[in-house]
Design a protein that fits this description.
The chain is built from eleven helices and 42 strands. By secondary structure, the chain is of the alpha+beta class. The chain has three domains: 110 residues, Sandwich (Immunoglobulin-like); 187 residues, Sandwich (Immunoglobulin-like), CATH 2.60.40.1700; 368 residues, L-arginine/glycine Amidinotransferase, Chain A (5-stranded Propeller), CATH 3.75.10.10. Strands 2, 4, 6, 8, 9, 11, 13, 14 and 16 form a nine-stranded mixed beta sheet that branches. It has a five-stranded mixed beta sheet with strand order 10-18-17-12-15, with no helix packed on it. Strands 1-3-7-5 form a four-stranded mixed beta sheet, with no helix packed on it. It is elongated, with a radius of gyration of 34 Å. The two termini are 27 Å apart. Bound molecules: 2-acetamido-2-deoxy-beta-D-glucopyranose (4 copies). One 2-acetamido-2-deoxy-beta-D-glucopyranose binds next to strand 17 and strand 18. It catalyses: L-arginyl-[protein] + H2O = L-citrullyl-[protein] + NH4(+). It holds the Pfam family PAD_N. It is an enzyme of class 3 (hydrolase). Keywords: Calcium, Cytoplasm, Hydrolase.
């Protein structure tokens, strides 16, 4: 219960009071008493309860109680009034000789008011949850949840629903959180009293409130002015950045008014996602003066974070681009996706305009609440020629869109979302991450210069909170993406997954073993017409390549240690894949790494089926030794390896299967609000 409200009462006057059931009125008895009063007595009708402080010795209700300097009367009412003034309370004052000096009379009208939300997170707006005014994480937590209405229910001229301040289709209401104003009381509020909803200026940037007009059939009590406003639409806008405070009608009797609350922006730097909405009962003072609030009810929402989906979640749809030259790759992908039983979505030339890097332009995620959830694509500030694809092709009913706008000069290759991944669920030194942890690549922590993921995107990712990011060192690569040296695959044992890391050491070990077994003349790039072939002997004789790969291995090992620490992994959770790199001078005259042959770790993971870049490794007994090694490393986990030829159309352009594809996955069963934070 909130603090009691101080009520002024004067003797020889009748004061009309509106009292909200559940709240308390505090009357200073001495302040309103006639001079030289020494005793008082109190009488009231049954709906009124009172206590006297300090408590009097006498017990009989009509007894004359000594009036003290600090005598206070605390008044509550147990149920709503049927009529205005239907309850009464009077205080009679007496002199020392018990002579009556005066009498103060209260005419009381009780109303029940409760602004309600789904604070217990079961999808239903319960009545007057005691925790509705605060927000707490965890299975024992509480607090209502709001979605950013970032999909588009419009049929024509689509744009995110957040960008219009009216509801064009009732289907939009399911993206919003219900809020109910429950009232009970006389047919109308006493003259001059008003109910208003209000929000702060800051919160108004993040939320809009609409009202349903369906309850207005019982609208007898509405003033013409209010009625006119609400007649305009079925779901009039009540609160927005333009209107921070708005009167809402009071219907009389027992009534419920439904509101729809729409989230407008995601948590971000400086915005933790919490929003407060207040409802106040205003009391008139006198003509020309502003009303004062005599009762305020408060509800709190938290905006749902954007959540990424790791490789261990089931795929729903696979996305690839069709270009002039990638027929071979598309054929391989189509076979794999068909075999796995998922949907393949092809982005055609008119939309991709030659940009094949489907991984880099978008990241798929979702938002979730107890009442609704839908996928949301995060559009990268990379803005290659694929830049219109997420907005034009993905945004739609129950498919949301969010982006972060960066200055052109701040955007580098590290802003492509091959550099944005997420781990499966992990437990790290006792701390649970049931939604996994986001992984990005940045410049080496001690570097004073170097490329980084742009600040607006990093700020956004960190602010989502539920998949606390890990920053790896990826600037050593020309392209600079974490997916060039790591991925996760599902596993039936241990932590439910393995971390796969590219490993030059593993490649040298494999190749030296083959050389020892007499396969030194087996050729890399065997079967590729336009590619200069190279024997294992030649490769193993190349000292500078070995030196370059020692450097690469040390970069990957640095990341390996970070991943072990931040994901709580043991050596047994990691598999090293035989992959070599080479250093090349990039545009900035820096030596950075690229894969020497197709980078097999850059794979697509579709349940148990892996689509792996075909490595064109040395053939031993007619079989590619790299493929054989991959199969032997992964098939024990129940995984099936399919090798996809991406050599000409992706590998030669410094990307592979993962860079050229994307997967929308099913959301987690785990509910983000059940996280213990
Ligand atoms: C309720 O009581 C107040 C104060 O006595 C009075 O001004 C008002 O007119 C009354 N209202 C009704 C509907 O009787
Ligand atoms: C409203 O949305 C539904 C579901 O998306 C759609 O089927 C319907 O055509 C829309 N109605 C209008 C008037 O746009
Ligand atoms: C809402 O009410 C609380 C107290 O209940 C108050 O602290 C806060 O400032 C109010 N906010 C607005 C926007 O009126
Ligand atoms: C790059 O981003 C990381 C992670 O936010 C930050 O710690 C680092 O200072 C940044 N480095 C540079 C060179 O801007």
């Amino acid at each position: 219960m909130t603090h009691p409200r101080t009520l002024r009462v004067d003797y020889d006057k009748t004061t009309a009071v509106v009292c909200v059931v559940g709240s308390e009125l505090n009357v200073n008895l001495n302040r309103g008493a006639p001079p030289s009063s020494k005793f008082f007595s109190v009488k009231c009708t049954p709906n009124v309860q009172y206590t006297i402080n300090p408590p009097p010795q006498e017990t009989a209700p009509l007894a004359q109680i000594p009036l003290k300097g600090n005598s206070v009367l605390l008044i509550t009412m147990s149920s709503a009034s049927q009529f205005e003034n239907d309850s009464k309370l009077s205080v009679q004052y007496y002199a020392n000789n018990k002579e009556v000096l005066g009498k103060a009379v209260l005419h009381l009208t009780a109303v029940e008011i409760s602004l309600d939300v789904d604070a217990d997170r079961d999808g239903i707006v319960e009545k007057n949850n005691p925790n509705k005014g605060s927000w707490k994480w965890g299975p024992k937590g509480h607090g209502a949840i709001l979605l950013v209405n970032c999909d588009s229910e419009r049929t024509y001229w689509k744009k995110p629903d957040t960008e219009q301040d009216y509801i064009s289709n009732v289907s939009d209401l399911k993206d919003m959180s219900a809020m109910v104003l429950r009232t009970r009381g006389p047919a109308k509020l006493p003259q001059g009293y008003k109910l208003t909803l209000h929000i702060s200026q800051g919160d108004a940037e993040s939320v809009r409130v609409f009202r349903s007009r369906s309850a207005d059939n019982k609208k007898n009590a509405m003033t013409d002015n209010v009625l006119y406003k609400y007649l305009l639409k079925d779901h009039p806008l009540v609160l927005s950045s333009e209107v921070l405070s708005e009167e809402v009608p009071y219907f009389g009797g027992e009534a419920e008014m439904k509101f729809y609350v729409e989230g407008l922006r995601f948590p971000d730097k400086g915005f933790d996602g919490l929003i407060t909405i207040n409802l106040s009962l205003l009391e008139p003072i006198s003509e020309g003066l502003p009303e004062t609030p005599i009762f305020t009810d408060k509800v709190v929402f938290k905006v749902a974070p954007w959540i990424m989906t790791p490789n261990t979640l089931n795929p729903v749809e696979v996305f690839v681009c069709s270009t002039e030259d990638n027929y071979q790759f598309l054929k391989g992908m189509r076979n794999l996706v068909d075999k796995s039983g998922y949907k393949l979505k092809i982005c055609y030339k008119y939309e991709n305009r030659g940009d094949r890097w489907m991984q880099d332009e978008v990241e798929f995620g979702y938002i979730d609440s107890p009442h609704h959830r839908f996928p949301v694509v995060l559009d990268s500030p990379r803005d290659g020629r694929l830049q219109d694809f997420p907005y034009n092709e993905l945004l739609g009913p129950d498919f949301g869109y969010v982006t972060r706008v960066a200055q052109r000069k701040d955007v580098s290759s590290l802003d492509s979302f091959g550099n944005l991944e997420v781990s499966p669920p992990v437990t790290v030194r006792g701390k649970h991450y049931p939604l996994g942890r986001i992984i990005i690549g940045v410049a080496f922590p001690t570097a004073t210069k170097g490329r980084n993921m742009t600040k607006v995107v990093q700020d956004f990712l960190w602010a989502q909170k539920v998949q606390e990011p890990i920053a790896l060192f990826s600037d050593w690569l020309i392209v600079g993406h974490v997916d060039e040296f790591m991925t996760f695959v599902p596993a039936p044992d241990r932590k439910g997954f393995r971390l796969l890391l590219a490993s030059p050491d593993a490649a040298y070990k494999l190749f030296r073993g083959l050389q020892n077994e007499g396969h030194g003349e087996a050729k890399l790039f065997d079967g590729l017409e336009d590619e200069q072939q190279l024997t294992l002997n030649e490769l193993l004789d190349d000292d500078s390549l070995q030196t370059e790969n020692n450097y690469v291995q040390s970069c990957i090992d640095w990341n390996r240690d970070v991943l072990k620490r931040e994901l709580g992994l043991d050596e047994g959770d990691i598999i090293d894949l035989p992959i070599l790199f080479k250093l090349e001078e990039d545009e900035g005259n820096q030596y950075r790494a690229v894969a020497y042959y197709p980078d097999m770790v850059n794979m697509i993971v579709l349940g148990k089926n892996l689509g792996i870049p075909k490595p064109f490794g040395p053939k031993v007994n007619g079989r590619c030794a790299l493929e054989a090694e991959m199969c032997s490393l992964l098939e024990g986990l129940g995984l099936s390896c399919t090798f996809i030829d991406d050599f000409a159309s992706y590998h030669k352009l410094l990307g592979e299967v993962h860079c050229g594809s994307n997967v929308r996955r099913e959301p987690f069963d785990f509910k983000w609000w059940n996280l213990e934070m």
